[in-house]
Amino acid sequence: MRIVKEEEWMKLLLKLIKSIKGKYYSGVYGVPRGGIPIACAISAKLNIPLVSKPFDGCLVVDDLIDSGKTAEKYKNYEFKVLIIKKDNEWIEFWYENTEQDKEDIITRMIENIGDNPKREGLIDTPKRVTKMWQETFRGYDPKQKPQLTVFNNGIDGIVYDEMIVDTGDFYSHCEHHMVPFFGQYWFAYIPNKKILGLSKVARIVDYYSAKLQIQERLVKEILDEIEKEVKPKGIALIMRGEHLCKTMRGVKKKGQMVTSDLRGVFKTSSQTRQEFLSFVGYKNE
After folding, report:
1. What pLDDT is stored for residue 285 in this prediction?
2. What is the CATH number of the domain that holds 167?
């Protein structure tokens, strides 16, 4: 995460003012809310009138190009920003994203769906939701990423080269509708030189599940992380999940989605693959 402090903001602002000095604009419009103080500063410094909406010949300013939607909206105007965000970069300005900002977002969401955020049952809901999100979306915080504990195969006098299987539950959120999907997973690997700590699979599954996901990506991110550290002879993961975006909305039909990723000997050996599938409950017909 990059925090843009007031001192850096001022330097970027002065750089922006210098880049437009000498050009003629009939007005300057600040995109709410980050662009408003920038527009005010430009107006005061360069004597350009502040305007309440953009029009031909005016300058439109904002603090950040994030998703690109704002830039697309104002593509027909001269558009300037302090920062153009890089891919996967998280930027916060010193004046935003306070706890109150986060709670205000939830308050507006409650109003948007037609309820009253001031009624007794909802008064503390914004606070509860933001606190819950810190837990359920911890997968975006690299500081909370679990460390994989591995041991040398044979350190205890036994070299293990058979299949090791771990099963458990997972809980995630669909990135298309932000509603939960959840279910079971079956993980297996055949060790090479490293043995994986017993609880680490579940921790990695939990971490990568704790963000907006699609199940197809989730299986691959989990295996990529484990395979990189353990370098096994083979590794496999099957996930079977129920998606509430299908069950409670849209088609409103029950049903489970199964995704799998099989690598190494699980991919090349039908015998190894079938042994794993027997744990999952699949049979060759």
Report:
1. 43
2. 3.30.1130.10
- Answer yes or no: are the C-beta atoms of 193 and 150 closer than 8 Å: no
Please indicate, yes or no, if residue 9 is contained in any of the structural domains.
yes
Does residue 88 fall inside a structural domain?
yes
- Burial class (CB within 10 angstroms; exposed 0-12, middle 13-18, buried 19+) of 38: buried
Determine the Cα–Cα distance for residues 251 and 53; give it in Å rounded to an integer.
42
Where does the pLDDT of residue 49 fall: very low under 50, low under 70, confident under 90, or very high at 90 and above? very high
Q: Where are the alpha helices (DSSP H) in the chain?
A: 6-20, 36-46, 69-73, 99-112, 125-136, 200-209, 215-230, 244-247, 265-268, 270-280
* Residue whose C-alpha is closest to residue 8's, from 89, 76, 60, 82: 82
CA angle in degrees (0–180, nearest 5) for 74-78-79: 60
Active site (catalytic) residues: 174-177, 215, 243, 245
Query: Structural domain of residue 153, as residue ranges?
Result: 147-280
If you average pLDDT over every residue of the chain, what do you get? 92
Alpha-carbon distance 264 to 262, whole Å? 7
Beta pairing, strands 234-243 & 180-190 = antiparallel
Nearest to 3 by CA among 89, 87, 72, 62: 89
More confident residue, 105 or 99: 105
